[in-house]
Design brief:
This protein is α/β, with parallel strands linked by helices. It folds into 2 domains: 138 residues, Rossmann fold (3-Layer(aba) Sandwich), CATH 3.40.50.720; 169 residues, Dihydrodipicolinate Reductase, domain 2 (2-Layer Sandwich), CATH 3.30.360. It is built from 11 helices and 15 strands. The strands form 2 sheets. The chain has a 9-stranded mixed β-sheet with strand order 14-13-12-11-7-10-9-8-15. A hairpin with a 4-residue loop joins β9 and β10. α4 packs parallel to α5, α7 packs across α10 and α10 crosses α11. The longest helix has 19 residues. The chain starts with 5 loop residues before the first strand and ends with a helix.
């Protein structure tokens, strides 16, 4: 007997809503049945292009008893208020990364789960890329031996195209530039691969000639509680690239994604690469591994459907989203301190204390 698809809504009908809606069409677990945007023009265009009925208001969407969860693709500063409205209606929450515009608001969003009896997940889909998952399997099985080191880079040419009418121009909207917009994907993926992070060190600079407020280069090192080390580079003035390399005492693996296929993950395996190099073998003896076709966006939507059906936490839970944003904040603090190491626990504990103090002051 077929269980049937979980019905969900989506709020914010821009480019990313379209990416996720296309991905949902490949799922046998989830169906996006209602869309909402404050823009009537966007509502009409989305309904015309995808056949998804639009709601005239968020309240109308949330009043629909068939809808069990809501996907948020709204700007970062709207994550918390929209998520709270969704939670009050008893619906489960999927929010795009980062979990919120600030670490404090991320903590408040995570707390909605206990307050309203719902679950929340964060769309850190990059950790679901097939190459990253195969690396994780090789680490967990012991095939690579003890993990020692990881290096990664996510870069593109965004800073060469910025203008003052775009939100990424401004330091308060896109702190650290590529650090908060690109490197965050790798912070989450390396956390998935390497486990708990002890401390973070980072430096940044500005090289783009356009004059934006934000830094456009960053280099961040992570020290894991295991003793392993990791490096994350992110540049906003170069051709697009995304890669992760992991080093173990028995071998290494390298995964490189064709950045041009990011929005079309069904084709990632066609132009991307994953190889393993074992023991003392040189580069010439590396073994190229078949990743096969996969879709990280469909996989995360399936995860959301499972969460809505069971009411249980999933891998992309809110607490993992808080860690990724915490690493971003620790890196930004390190930059302010001229590269000094910053403990991740310091950043998270300070944010929790600030939220507790503000909540107590408002009562």
């Amino acid at each position: 007997m077929s269980i049937g698809k979980i019905k969900v809504g989506i709020v914010g009908l821009g480019r990313w809503a379209r990416v996720l809606t296309r991905a949902s069409r490949q799922s046998d677990k989830i169906e996006i049945v209602r869309g909402y945007s404050r823009s009537a023009e966007k509502r009409d265009a989305f309904e015309a292009d995808y056949g998804v009925h639009s709601a005239d208001s968020l309240e109308e969407m949330l009043a629909d008893p068939e809808i069990k969860g809501v996907i948020l693709t709204v700007p970062n500063e709207q994550h918390l208020p929209v998520a709270e409205a969704v939670a009050k209606a008893g619906k489960h929450i999927y929010t795009e990364k980062p979990i919120a515009n600030t670490l404090e608001n991320g903590i408040r969003l995570e707390a909605l789960q206990g307050k309203y009896g719902v679950q929340a997940m964060v769309g850190h889909s990059a950790r679901l890329l097939r190459g990253a998952r195969m690396m994780k399997d090789a680490i967990d099985s012991g095939e690579l031996g003890t993990l020692s080191f990881m290096e990664s880079n996510f870069s593109n040419e965004r800073a060469l195209e910025l203008t003052p009418d775009t939100w990424r121009w401004y330091r308060d909207k896109a702190p650290g530039g590529p650090l908060s917009q690109l490197a965050t994907h790798l912070f989450d993926s390396l956390y998935m691969l390497g486990g708990p992070v002890e401390d973070v060190s980072s430096v940044a600079s500005k090289l783009s000639p356009v004059g934006a407020e934000v830094d456009d280069q960053s280099m961040t090192t992570l020290r894991f509680k295991s003793g392993a080390l990791g490096y994350v580079g992110s540049c906003w003035t170069s051709p697009g690239i995304y890669y992760i390399r992991v080093y173990g005492q028995k071998g290494l693996m390298h995964f490189e994604l064709d950045f041009g296929s990011w929005d079309d993950p069904d084709r990632v395996h066609e132009t991307s690469t994953l190889y393993i190099q074992r023991g003392k073998d040189g580069y010439g003896k590396r073994e190229v591994l078949d990743m096969g076709a996969s879709n990280m966006f469909t996989d995360e939507l399936d995860m959301f459907a499972d969460m809505c059906r069971s009411g249980e936490k999933v891998e992309l839970e809110a607490s993992n989203g808080l860690v990724a944003l915490g690493i971003v904040n620790a890196a930004l603090a390190s930059i302010e301190r001229k590269g000094q190491s910053v403990a991740l626990s310091e950043v998270l504990d300070t944010a929790h204390a600030r939220v507790a103090a503000e909540d107590q002051g408002s009562t």
